[in-house]
Design goal:
6-stranded mixed β-sheet; flat; alpha/beta; about 450 residues; homodimer
Chain lengths: ~450, ~450
Amino acid sequence: MNDRKPIVAQSTPKGTGALALIRISGEDAFTVFLQIVMQTERFKNAPPRKISLYTLMDHEKKKVLDEVTAIKYTSPRSFTGENMIEIICHGGEVIIREIINALIKNGAQQASRGAFTRRALENGKIDLLKAEAIQGIIESTNEPDRLCAQRMYDGKINALLSVKDTILKVQTELDAEIEFGEEERISDTRESGRETILRIISDLEKEIRLREKITNLIGGIRIIITGPTNAGKSTLFNTILGFQRALVHHEPGTTRDMVSERMLIDDHEIKLIDCAGIRETSNDVERQGIIISRSAINTAHLILWVTAANETLSENEKQEIKANVFGKRAIGIINKCDIEDGASKVAIFKEEGITHCLISLKQGKNVDSLLTIVKKEIDFISSSIEMPEILLNKRFEELGKKIMLDLLKADKEWNRTEIAAHYLKKAYSHFEEIFGANNNEEILNRIFDNFCIGK
Amino acid sequence: MNDRKPIVAQSTPKGTGALALIRISGEDAFTVFLQIVMQTERFKNAPPRKISLYTLMDHEKKKVLDEVTAIKYTSPRSFTGENMIEIICHGGEVIIREIINALIKNGAQQASRGAFTRRALENGKIDLLKAEAIQGIIESTNEPDRLCAQRMYDGKINALLSVKDTILKVQTELDAEIEFGEEERISDTRESGRETILRIISDLEKEIRLREKITNLIGGIRIIITGPTNAGKSTLFNTILGFQRALVHHEPGTTRDMVSERMLIDDHEIKLIDCAGIRETSNDVERQGIIISRSAINTAHLILWVTAANETLSENEKQEIKANVFGKRAIGIINKCDIEDGASKVAIFKEEGITHCLISLKQGKNVDSLLTIVKKEIDFISSSIEMPEILLNKRFEELGKKIMLDLLKADKEWNRTEIAAHYLKKAYSHFEEIFGANNNEEILNRIFDNFCIGK
């Protein structure tokens, strides 16, 4: 390990804040740090895990970089198992950049994604599944995702282990049969083994669907605002957001690209999307925008269809409502109810069984009750998501798909015992990736590439 | 202070990172923290300034929030002078939100901007100028701004103090003359006093201009890409950026709003702006975009005028180049040189004395040399900024303007000694705001409203 430069990175997010945390780890971490610290004796004498104040200097440029606090961790009692320092500096981007540059100039190297965790793994300080679980907890932007990661962190992977053991058991039975069995008739064991495999396939199918729902929640519950032009979509977007963002303009087709914003509603992460106006258009760019918006509608959790009370329901809008909103969670919002009663719009929403709400964004009428309806929908969407038990993260999901595929092949060839056994073996081998990844450089690279810098 | 709830805030920037730092400060900070910590004895027995590992729990929801490290600071030996804890947790947005919510549920309150520094000020742990300087260092996105804040942090405010003392001296002399002086003729003292005041006015004028230049650098050196439609502006933008961002499309007028991106070039903070195509248009929204782009050109540090070699120079473009680029730092970029030699474009740039560069973005021809020219310009712009010595931050600048105004009035009324003396007194009184702000709630509110949350 002597040939390895210490790694350094900012562990807190980019951007300006009051403070930032920089980590440096490696056998020579202390030597490197001492090159930029003014109070060298203080650092040398500081007991491990005790925080002290230091002035950081770029000696070459003769320039004070910052006054910081820093904590010394001595190997092996650190996150990585190596000598390590956590520097808490002021959170200015220039400061952080200069401190890291100074450390690199004095012998450190920029840490790649997940490099600290990887060293912790190499030094036996953490196991891979736990490391992945931590990354999952960090990245989760929604409760189901976080609960999955938490379950993994707590080591609750019994369901996955049980799938693994069951496949091995059935495969062993098939092997025994190949060795000793009667070839003429399908034995009871083989039949019950097939049932077991079919049950696993169905479990995995269900879990894959659950994971898709969770993946769909990444970045938050997607609420899309759509409907004909000039109905007040951008105004509604801004009203919900509480601040001006989209360009509001009288000319139809203004919101050409989609505008979206992340926000919190009752502690739920929401991605609010203001969609291009749905209408026939001869303009190329606009048509492109409309294609994008159609696909956004398809993946949205909740559709807010905004339409104007003072405009008659066109045959086109009627078709669009039927086509886009059908079978989805949607709220029909009839705006400009201060001008007219919007009876034809009420009728179509009633006909389609869609909750509707008459509002006037201009006068602020009924906006509160609309928000209440939206919140209820969010609660419903959030609580209706069931938790996976086997496929606890994206990587497990991918392996789950491979396992399922091989099990399906095994099932198809069940009567040709050798081939079925071969596919069961293949299915079982995918567990290697999950549990034996520690020894495989390529798998490790793939996993750590998804980690944060500074983690 | 007993009636004051502890304050809590995330001190690191929002967003997802490996780690985040949460601060809690107040007499009851430890009591509140103990409500959510599992290892209560460990925390109670932990010596101050020693970091330890804790599991945080939401006992009400019976849920583990995170495994964190935390440092205990006991009053008065902390940043705020109060009992304080720094919690280093995993950097997921959900985690951070839940920890802060749990602390608030157990008796803390969300800290407002600069609330920690304000408590430090109240407890005599820091003086206001130093606190402002730290905030200045944090916020600075460019070297001159940072150096100003550093100068202030180091207490190098002699120039400002000298202005203050000089005004007082002249004013005292005027007062003496009012009491004892001859009214008939302008005395030597008065004349030299006037010269002194005029010198201060001119110094302040120069400093205000310097500060404007620095303010103009906030968010980075602004480089604007502009020129006629279809010349390859968005492609150049993406080339410089190194990744796809603006919508590239064959239809003229596509980049309707400005697209901009922050980036680093040779350690300089750059704001690269892709501007709406400058052309006559009948479209309302586009015309709006063009007005915005004109004003962006006026405040840019560097203009990249992109034009196509294969299109003849229109009278309109000629006028636009003369009008927009005149007297500014600009590079004329003649794209599509793989199709034609662009002689008419070369001529106009030569005529206007603008550095030009023939490139082909499609073939990647000459792009490197263009980037070299751009980098040279950035170096020039960055190094040509002189440092202020008196007006070290925005607040000083505002007070400097007020002082200058009063000195100008004094100068105008110099022969009416009483009135001149009155304005000198008024000018002097503004220093109260700088040096006596500690006792003025309103001034403090104004100052701290500009601080970070968690600072």
